[in-house]
Amino acid sequence: QLQFVESGGGLVQPGGSLRLSCAVSGFTLDYYAIGWFRQAPGKEREGVSCISSGGSTYYADSVKGRFTISRDNAKNTRYLQMNSLKPEDTAVYYCAAKGFSCPKGDEYDYWGQGTQVTVSS
Q: What are the phi and psi torsion angles at 3 (to 5°)?
């Protein structure tokens, strides 16, 4: 049975850091791209970052230089390190999976349940 476990969200002050984790059971991530998305209240879902099965990484302009996506195949887990957080980063963050390459938009096959990130003083 396929299952995502997202963790690492929480409340942080502006300028702070968080690391989100996306642990998957039910299939190996070795052959999947993992994307991170976020959705703030009243806003459309936004793609944040993606890492392909080959390790290629992509970032939205709004997070370049602040967020880093990484992987640990031994733990079947992908991470999103978020530094220099801003209030506008506040959202529910989701991870999603699709075979091999990072797709355009949100054309992923599997989605996690989301974790809340709140950036506030």
A: -145, 135
Give the pLDDT of residue 26: 87
State in Å, rounded, how far the first CA of the chain is from the last one: 40
Considering only the C-alpha atoms of the chain, give the largest distance between any 2 of them, rounded to a whole number of Å: 40
Q: How is residue 102 annotated by DSSP?
A: P
d(CA 7, CA 2): 17
Task: Please say whether the beta carbons of 90 and 121 come within 8 A.
Answer: no
d(CA 67, CA 28): 24
pLDDT the model gives residue 52: 96
CB 81: neighbour CB atoms within 10 A? 14
pLDDT in tens, 47-66: 999 999 999 999 999 999 99
